[in-house]
Amino acid sequence: MINVYEDGKVIARVERNNNLDRWNGHNWNSGEVGEHLGLTRLKDGRFVAIHTTQIEGGRDRATIISREDALQLVLYAENEDLLDRYFEKEKKELDNSEEERNS
User: Fold this and answer.
1) How many domains, the chain?
2) CA of 88: how far to CAs of 2, 20, 35, 54, 68, in Å?
3) Which residues does 20 contact at the CB level (< 8 Å), separation at least 6?
4) DSSP readout, 54-69?
5) Does 103 score more than 60 pLDDT?
6) How far is residue 46's CA from residue 98's CA, in Å, rounded to a whole number?
7) Of the candidates 72, 77, 70, which has an alpha carbon nearest to the alpha carbon of residue 42?
């Protein structure tokens, strides 16, 4: 479990996950080898980005982020499951944003 801090106090504990990692052809990661990124939502609706590392001396952390930042992370990761789970309205808006093509 990873502590979630706000104003220096632990407000929640979340499970480690890497559901925002992408396949780079060799490894699943979030940019650098050994760095991983996940997303979860607290019971009060706030989103938490979960940063984990396999790098020696590195420290896992969990950060509260805005809904918009969470949406952008999910879109970048191309994670349709999270998009469906947390952002149904936004997905519909994005899917309908392309101009209709004339046949």
Assistant:
1) 1
2) 27, 17, 28, 33, 13
3) 30, 37, 38, 39, 49, 73, 74, 76, 77, 79, 82
4) -STT---EEEEE-HHH
5) no
6) 30
7) 70
Q: Is residue 100 part of a domain?
A: no
Element counts in the chain: helices (H) and strands (E):
3, 7
Handedness of CA 41, 90, 65, 49 (dihedral sign): positive
Residue 103 lies in a domain: no
What's the pLDDT at 31? 62
Residue reference for tokens 């990124």? 37
Range of the domain at 17: 2-95
Q: What is the pLDDT of residue 4?
A: 95
Q: Model pTM?
A: 0.80
18 in Cβ contact with 32 (< 8 Å): no
Give residue for tokens 């706030």.
Answer: 46
